[in-house]
């Protein structure tokens, strides 16, 4: 089954805009996103965080992962399975990562299984855009986070990291698409979707 063309077009145009952002801007934005997230009480209280290791022009998460780890949180990062579902393994410093599929760095630590995300107190996810109305996210198209987010309980903060203009009214959605509860942008963290 093909997916809506508007989804593919939106992905392409946001990817192009990200690539066009000057490196300096991307770096400054990533620092603002990181600091806004680290200021949240629910970030500071989270003992186990599911995060991701950014690639390419995504908002940089390397500083965020390092800061969480330094402050004593356990940080899990995704390990992409052959079926595009996400396994999870614990980050234990910059020397414990090795490239996986698509060149994303993944922990070499023991894999905790696809259900490990159920135990996280905070879930930080990548997105190209999020709809403010319903919180539905647009990802790279593997459906990995549609599956992973379906396992997260209703009271766990889920937050997508975006550049400023990537929060839109609504993204083109299919029934399997999952929502996040917050977005973190350079201007700050806000709740999205129905309260
Ligand atoms: N940093 C990061 N880690 C992540 C994701 C992500 O979106 N970003 N994922 C989110 O699910 C999972 C991995 N899935 C990924 C899927 C596609 C691409 C990617 O770069 N795709 C290229 C197209 C490559 C191709 O089709 O050959 C692209 O988008 O340009 C990266 C990761 C888990 N880890
Ligand atoms: N629960 C699921 N089980 C198996 N496949 C799924 C599931 N949810 C979504 N998919 C498949 O994943 C594919 C991509 O979905 P979608 O375009 O929503 O990805 P995305 O959310 O943009 O990407 P990602 O979550 O990897 O960042 C779709 O073809 C869909 O059929």
Describe what this molecule looks like in 3D.
There is one protein chain. The chain is α/β, with parallel strands linked by helices. It contains five helices and twelve strands. The protein has helices at residues 5-20, 23-38, 41-44, 62-70, 144-149; strands spanning 48-50, 74-80, 86-90, 97-99, 105-107, 122-126, 129-131, 137-138, 158-161, 167-168, 182-185, 188-191. The strands form three sheets. The protein has a seven-stranded mixed sheet. Strand 2 and strand 3 form a beta hairpin. Helix 2 runs parallel beside helix 4 (62-70). The mean pLDDT is 96. Residues 52-55, 58, 78, 80, 86, 102, 104, 126, 139-140, 142, 144-145 line the site of the ligand Nc1nc2c(c(=O)[nH]1)N(C=O)[C@@H](CNc1ccc(C(=O)N[C@@H](CCC(=O)O)C(=O)O)cc1)CN2.
Summarize the entry for a quick read:
It comes from Sinosporangium album. The chain is α/β, with parallel strands linked by helices and about 200 residues long. The chain has helices at about 5-20, 25-40, 40-45, 60-70, 145-150; strands spanning about 50, 75-80, 85-90, 95-100, 105, 120-125, 130, 135-140, 160, 165-170, 180-185, 190.
